Amino acid sequence: MNISNTILGYPRIGINRELKQAQEKYWAKKISQTELFKIGKKLRKTHWEQQIKLGIDLIPVGDFAWYDHVLSTTMMLGNIPKRHQYNNHIINIDTLFRIARGTAPTGPKTSASEMTKWFNTNYHYIVPEFIKNNTFQYQWTQLIDELDEAISYGYKAKPIVLGPLSYLWLGKIKGKHFDKLELLNNILPIYQLLLEKIKKRNIDWVQIDEPILSLDLPESWLNAFFYTYNFFNKNNKNNIILTTYFGDITHNFETIVNLPIQGLHLDLINCKSELYTLHKKIPKDWLLSLGIINGRNIWKSDLIYWFQKIKKIYNERKKIFLSSSCSLLHCPIDVQYEKKINTEIKKWFAFSVQKCHELFLLKNALKEDNIEKLVSWTQPIIERHQSNIVNDTNVQNRIKKNVLCIPKRYNKYYIRSLEQKKLLNLPILPTTTIGSFPQTNALRKIRMDFKNSKINQNIYNNEIKKIIKKNIEEQEKLGLDVLVHGEPERNDMVEYFGENLNGFTFTENGWVQSYGSRCVKPPIIIGDVSRKKDITVKLTKYAQSLTKKPIKGMLTGPVTILQWSFPREDISKEKIATQLALSLQDEVLELEKSGINIIQIDEPALREGLPLIKKEWEPYLKWAINAFKLSYYGVKDSTQIHTHMCYCEFNDFMNAITQLDADVITIETSRSDMELLEIFKKFQYPNEIGPGVYDIHSPNIPTIECIEQLLKKAINCIDINRLWVNPDCGLKTRSWDETKLSIKAMIQAAINIRNKL
Length: 757
Ligand SMILES: CN1c2c(nc(N)[nH]c2=O)NC[C@@H]1CNc1ccc(C(=O)N[C@@H](CCC(=O)N[C@@H](CCC(=O)N[C@@H](CCC(=O)O)C(=O)O)C(=O)O)C(=O)O)cc1
Ligand SMILES: N[C@@H](CCS)C(=O)O
Ligand SMILES: [Zn+2]
Hints:
- The protein is α/β, with parallel strands linked by helices.
- It folds into two domains: 2-303 and 317-332 and 346-386, Alpha-Beta Barrel (TIM Barrel), CATH 3.20.20; 393-756, TIM Barrel.
- 43% of the residues lie in helices and 13% in strands.
- The strands form six sheets. An eight-stranded parallel beta sheet has the order 1-12-11-10-9-8-6-2. A five-stranded parallel beta sheet has the order 17-18-19-20-21.
- Strand 10, helix 10 (275-281) and strand 11 (287-293) form a beta-alpha-beta unit.
- 50% of the residues are buried.
- The model has no long low-confidence stretch (mean pLDDT 96).
- Bound molecules: the ligand CN1c2c(nc(N)[nH]c2=O)NC[C@@H]1CNc1ccc(C(=O)N[C@@H](CCC(=O)N[C@@H](CCC(=O)N[C@@H](CCC(=O)O)C(=O)O)C(=O)O)C(=O)O)cc1, 2-amino-4-mercapto-butyric acid (HCS) and zinc ion.
- Ligand LYWDKB7T is lined by residues 20, 122, 439, 441, 444-445, 447-448, 491-494, 514-515, 518-521, 564, 604, 729, 732-733.
């Protein structure tokens, strides 16, 4: 048996988020293109060197991206939306940034392409756009350039290509509807050209990612797999490892095993079948790439378990790769930099660097047929089960008591809404925001100084209060109807709640890319969760004391906290969500008791938590919706519950949204031109909606006319009495100047419409 170690991709941001700093400096015209490229090159070199040092035999190339790897593919295929073409269609890095952000150091400002969640992760990709008879041409040479770079350093490289079918599936039709598969024949020659270029470089294996194989696919798409991979097989002589990840592929297995490919990567963390059973069904001469190290969580792997599983197939296959289940893009880089995590707990974790080391340990153990080193590596896993950090009997008893509770509001929306209208007395088309206000450098410094004990709790509280006061004053000056405190005390909407709940631990440097230059540090759920003490009550009450307008309390919902944390794996997600929901319920009821009449419980990750195959949706939705409702269970009819969701597909999700029974839902719709509201109309969504009227991810300022147009479209779909006016998402990433100008335009547009009624 021949074994090599590889991974499906390494985090691209750099241990100190060097990529983020470089991108943002370039956008601000503080560094040149040459300097930007130099930083990218240095990062790639560092990452490759790290992997080699950690015993990775085959280095993934193509995991680096200037913004997003789907967007890199768009560039490679020359699939540039017309509005982003400039300068005689010559494309360069600014074309890429214009597609992503609507603006770049050169070229005109335009609306950015849509951004949406990458399968069930918290990573966002830029959605490719297709028109009827879309043509493609090989343009952006980044992948081949990087391959040459890796080869020049003497590395054995494995290029990563996003497969043509996944690329087409993930894209969106602009204009008249057509079958996206009609474009396959236009796109395949570009892939062929790419594969030829790769072949010329004497590359052993090409990783072609087709993650859509984890989804339910129509017959025509499964047939298209035969067509595509036969085309590659006939026209190219590369060894292809077809790569699937994020889910089980049993339902598409028949198709996969009959494809003319040379290798298959399996995400064995998410596969429902046993490795041995799969191995028996997979052609003997195929290379098997075993995705055994979880790229989506931070726990050490049970290497002894995998040793035993792999041993069973060891003598029956010619060649295997030991690999991560998916790209390590979704995982922090190195646990060694965590100086504040308790040493007992730290031993439970493996970040990207440690995951590569796990592959090294496993390969050696298999080769030497000796598990000694695996035993010491996995010892902390056993210790964890017995640790008293994990179990809290109070939480467990509360959960037991809650088992029979069916959470719901006392009355239906139309009755509640009468009470709420009476209490709140808002104008038609009430204006509000999603919660966060600009997180300026000065604000981040205050938080940082407090964290590093440069300022004490008192000074910190006063500084935060000063910012809340400014946020309220600005909102009053702008004339918003429902105000927020602005979330200045929060580093992140999930990490902050994690920090204030029992059962979590956090990292100092566990950054993971969320989109573009934006990163998050997911907290880690290590044990039973409960509320330590009130979390948002004091600051929300303080904000309310400064204004006569209603303040909307701001919480992150249980499913989103769960989804955007690294969860424990010893109890079900349902149990964790229930623990979170009960903790939030304590907070909701205390906010209500303190006189806060509007409470928003954000659930932007509810959709992304859906299992990839539909037959598994029902049980997920049952517990996820239940957790959301449990978090507000017990509030009065007159308390208006809002929720917020962004950057996700709603089409197939309307029943769930309705069942949440929030009085108001604010959603992202502006990048998609209010198309989404058609769905709300079709489903006769009964409660109130705030469709985002401008895109907060772009620095471009929306015009009053443009917002008015969008509002008119919205009024055609939804009864005006149930419509709210708000941006797409929180304003934390924007500057104050951008925020004020945009909100001013938004309010003016609402006033213009009100005046015409
Ligand atoms: C709504 N979204 C969110 C998602 N996931 C989350 N967990 N949170 C979200 O809000 N998923 C979907 C979307 C994605 N959107 C975003 C939007 C914005 C960000 C973002 O702004 N991220 C920041 C980092 C935020 C943070 O934690 N900042 C810390 C400061 C940490 C830091 O930068 N320290 C510096 C020193 C700073 C100084 O000295 O001034 C350092 O360590 O070097 C804080 O504010 O306290 C980002 O910059 O990327 C993410 C997702
Ligand atoms: N309340 C959060 C929601 C982001 S999805 C914010 O405004 O940033
Ligand atoms: Zn949002």
